[in-house]
Amino acid sequence: MTADPFTVGAFVCGPPHSPRALVRHGGLLVAYADGLIDDPREAYLSHFAFGPDLEDHHAASRGSVAGFAGPCWCRWLVLDIDRPDPAVALADARRLVVFVHQRYPDLEGDVPVYFSGNKGYHVLLELAHLPPPSAGFHHTAKALAEAVAAGAGVGIDPSVYDLAHIIRLPNTRHPKTGLHKRRLDSDALFRLDAEGIREHARYPAGDGIPTARQVPEELALDWGEAERHAGRTAEVWAERRAERGEVPDLRAPKFFLDLLRFGVGEGERHATLFRAAAWLTEQGAPPPLVLALLTEPGRDVGLTPKDVERQIGCGIDHARRHRAEVGVPRPPAPTPPATAGKPVDTHRSPEPPSMWNDPEAFYSLMTGRGWKWPAVLLWLNAPPTAGFFAVPADHRKRAADHLTRLPACERSEGGPV
Amino acid sequence: MNFNDAIPKPAAGSGSGIANFDTAQAAPEFLPVPPGIYAARVLNGEYTATKAGADAYRMRFEVTEGEQTGKTLVRTWTFGPKAIGYTKRDLSAFGLATSTQLLSPFPEPGRDIFVRLVVALQRGDDGIERNDIKRIDVVQVKDSPATAFLLPKKGEGGGQ
Q: A-chain residues within 8 Å CB-CB of B11?
């Protein structure tokens, strides 16, 4: 596969949540970098370029690129440094550029660096060896970028390697600061201080994007190694999924527990919330329960309500699609325990059928497991086919009625977990 | 190179949290805009539902000039038997003439639609004042130079 037909990009004119339009990726990027687009609005372009199949997906999804899973490609790999302190961000950007120069001497002087217009820098690593497009291209790109950044001792934002991620276009204005995303040549990067760079970014300029004059051999080797690393990671995940099979997880994954306990840092919030929603759905949790469990943690890490709802919704959809694709049936309905009086496994043991005839006993059981009143009620009111267990509708209704009438003093209020 | 030990990005930390509460500015109370004529642009239009669950189309406008710059105004059209004719008349002025267009992103990316709004101020039974957009005139439709790079839509003639 060659990069020739991979010219389709997703363009956003206005705030990042604005609709995506499909454009000629390379042409638009260069036009903005050359200062040919005279438009004061903020604008973004997808990090990766795609093939014609994105057009079909875009048309079928009513103008959305979310959920696309085809092959992709990019010429410039963005390493995004974002820090609350501008001086620290600048120091890290310099360190990263120095490392890239050392690692790939052929690129010295040709590494484009952009001030983002707020508190970060985009260091562009040109994939001059032109790796072919592939479905896992973005995973390889992430592995390479993280290895380069780790070599420099710098942390980068890992979320920019998501397939549909958009990056601010050069020479566009940042809505918060009014400053432009401006390219810094090596001289300016090492000579100016953070304030000088902000001054530099007051006006746009048409200074283009420098291209590599030589293809660094080391880059091709590193790309190959990154590809193998990304492949190994994918294999490990596939093995884990295969091992797990159709059996629901006995323990919640670490990322999920960490999200609930400690939150998650900027750059990983969207992806973690998405994964948490997908994991819960895979375990058979109905959408209202997923929403009830994850909305507050999502808000707590600083995401907007709209973002929270969207990430949870996308996670649920993703898990359902995956379930439909691989034909995984829903977790089976529990069978009654063989002997009465056996200790109850608070994670997985099925409830005796009589439990559903006794709403109070049911509620005690659920609160004993740490469930709070609103979550239990939401779960009971969820569509019957979406539940953990095949509970008869009339039993669910009776239990829900009981909970609705429960006096406030007897409710276990607060967060759902 | 080491492909196993990526350095996690530092958390946002100092930029958020209770530490900034003392110095933070209180947000202003929400107030409707005074009645009058406003220059505005279309932020977005979307197919939605009313509180009663009926189909509706909602358009948001952002005031672009004067003291109220940046304030948002909303107009909702419904599709009931009596309203649908008026809805069609009003939305056609924006080029929205088919249901497919109502379900597509609006305005199209890279396009700015500037309007003039005649806005009234009404008080509801609950005593709360709300704006009501009485009239909308499309003044200018401006395409970004970036639209020259848009791919032709499927079904449109020609190619690149």
A: 265-266
